[in-house]
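Reopening: structure tokens for the pantoate complex, inputs below.
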Amino acid sequence: MKIIVDIKEMHDYIKKIKKRGSSIGFVPTMGYLHEGHLSLVRRAGEENKKVIVSIFVNPIQFGPAEDFDKYPRDTERDLKMLKELKCVDCVFMPEAKDMYKEDFATYVELKNNMPNVLCGVSRPGHFVGVTTVVAKLLNIVQSDRLYLGQKDMQQAVILKKMIDDLNYDTEVVICPIVREKDGLAMSSRNTYLSPEERELAPILHQSLQIAESMIELGEKDIEKIRDEVKRKLNKANIKIDYIEIVDADTLQKKETLQGKILIAAAIYIGKTRLIDNTIINIPD
Ligand code: PAF
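Re-run output (same inputs, fresh job):
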């Protein structure tokens, strides 16, 4: 498993791989890996000749009051986990000073509503940071396939749109959410939770399951479903950021429950913001 820090060295490595005609699967991460990330890497290994994983805590996707400084980092542990998978060819770990030189001036921004809804409401500017860094990484890695987790579904939808709009020759593969035994979606940020908070955290998944079963039982009233989810969270004194039912491809609010529906929520457990979602296909 090669480890590359230098961007020019990465360009040269990719040129070599491309010359041999090997397909490239790319998994971008911010490190502090967990089973969710590893599931993406394994899938990339099954579907490509070469697998590249990036580890880069992208400073420009964190707001001024967010957790960039305290974002968990453990490169040694990450590299050990990746090596044990035996399918990773290269880990790209660029430095912030090289990714964003002092005179850095070019940002990639979706001008539609996608970055302003759901998480975008409480995290203004976050998705410009994400689209900009992934655009840069894709220019460097030139992957045939890009692997993203459904856990960050808004991010995946936005990146899919960027890739389509900017004609990147890469297929987006969205992989299922990986959960702890008690249903909590895996996230590097789960490490912020105290033992008591950790015990409470599965309530997010449980509340989404309420929405799922209401729909399965034939409930068609979107507000009624949102109210039930809210009721469950309010009862446990959980601070809700949002609970939305939107179109899973466009992220726009649904008037009727039809087609591919994304039920997405963000809550605060103590100071930690957790997100989760579920996708349901409702035949027309
Ligand atoms: O999901 C993440 O970890 C990040 O947003 C990503 C896609 C690696 C970009 O920094």
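The chain has two domains: 2-175, 188-276. Residues 2-175 form a domain with the Rossmann fold fold (CATH 3.40.50.620). Marking as resolved unless the reporter disagrees.
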